[in-house]
Specification:
Strand content: 15-25%
Number of helices: 13
Function: S-adenosyl-L-methionine-dependent methyltransferase.
Shape: globular
Distance between the termini: 39 Å
EC number: 2.1.1.-
GO molecular function: RNA methyltransferase activity; S-adenosylmethionine-dependent methyltransferase activity
Family: Belongs to the methyltransferase superfamily. METL family.
Structural class: alpha/beta
GO biological process, one term: methylation
Largest sheet: 7 strands, mixed
Number of strands: 10
Helix content: 25-40%
Strand order of the largest sheet: 3-2-1-4-5-10-9
Radius of gyration: 21 Å
Length: about 350
């Protein structure tokens, strides 16, 4: 995995053990790895989104224990913005898995609510179990999980309804539009109440005020080793969806696999389904980002680049003593304040 969870490793964490350009030059000189550089493949299966979602459900079924995904304690060092806000904070964790990203956020502050989605109902149940039994997390209604295949579906309106989105950007000035928007908000408020009762979720964990139609958007969206699992052709849509539920000025916090990460170089030619895109034997996808592609994807969604860099970490496999060179892309992107 990308990081161990021991306190010693956390204290020693750093992200510039080697130079990415030197790694690139080394890899691109090796004939045996030349197939990774080719932009063309004979066939592509990366557009089978529904099949891919089923593959991830099966994956989570096999790896449902907390041991498989370690708690990402480095997260707050990489994204200190999660701690710097003084008021109550709302975070949307996209593709939460068993809660490895959620836990350090919930431990760090009481004035936070994390809304977390995943396509697997089983793994959401595991995440709830882990959060409920975790130490130093109170109250438990800080965590609001909900099932969603975000690759193929929009985020629910109770996160940030259309009317409130328009109000936040100064739109919807016409009185008739406002009247219809208010009617829509009332209907949505009832739907959210029904949702909360059906899922045994306290209303107060969804809203700051019981009669509100939605939570009013989130301050942060975390995309941590999630976007790489989406077919590349669907990434622009997913990023746009994430941006739509952000408040103006909110941030998307991004971390994912980078080009020439050791796991990319392990894929065989037959597993390649697109440029820098591969399919594992279990049917799940993995894409490896360059800084240019990452920048293009997020900026095309109207977001502002604040930080974007490679994280290059050298570690040693304890079992065989081999050196591992890990490459991840770290980014922060802001929704413009209109």
């Amino acid at each position: 995995m990308e990081m161990t969870s021991s306190s010693e490793k956390e204290a020693e964490y750093h992200n510039s053990d080697f130079n990415w350009e030197e790694l690139r030059e080394e890899i691109e000189k090796l004939p045996s790895l030349s197939y990774h550089l080719s932009p063309h493949v004979s066939a592509s299966t990366s557009d089978s989104s529904l099949v891919e979602a089923d593959s991830w459900r099966r994956f989570h079924r096999r790896h449902s224990t907390a041991r498989f995904f370690k708690e990402r304690r480095y997260l707050l060092k990489e994204f200190p913005e999660l701690l710097s806000c003084h008021d109550s904070v709302k975070v949307l964790e996209v593709g939460c898995g068993n809660g490895s990203t959620v836990l350090p956020i919930l431990r760090a502050r009481e004035s936070v609510v994390v809304y977390a989605c995943d396509c697997s109902e089983e793994i959401l149940e595991k995440a709830k179990e882990i959060v409920v039994t975790a130490k130093s997390i109170t109250p438990k209604n800080q965590f609001v999980p909900f099932i969603l295949d975000f690759n193929n579906n929009e985020f629910p309106g109770w996160l940030f309804c259309t009317s409130c989105q328009s109000s936040s950007t100064g739109a919807n000035n016409a009185s008739s539009d406002n009247r219809h928007a208010n009617e829509a908000c009332v209907k949505l408020s009832q739907k959210v109440t029904d949702y909360a009762h059906e899922n045994e979720t306290p209303i107060n964990s969804l809203f700051l005020e019981g009669n509100r139609c939605c939570v009013g958007g989130v301050d942060f969206v975390t995309l941590i080793f999630t976007l790489s699992a989406v077919p590349f052709c669907n990434m622009p849509s997913v990023i746009q969806k994430c941006s739509s539920v952000l408040k103006p000025g909110g941030l998307i916090l991004f971390r994912d696999y980078g080009v020439y990460d050791m796991t990319m170089l392990r894929f065989a030619p037959v597993q390649k389904v697109g440029f820098r895109e591969y399919m594992r034997s279990d049917g799940t996808l993995s894409y490896f980002f360059s800084l240019d592609v990452t920048r293009e994807l997020f900026c095309a969604a109207g977001l502002i680049e604040l930080e974007l860099e490679y994280c290059c970490v050298r570690s040693v496999n304890r079992r065989n003593g081999k050196e591992m060179r890990r490459v991840w892309v770290h980014g922060k992107f802001q929704k413009p304040i209109v």
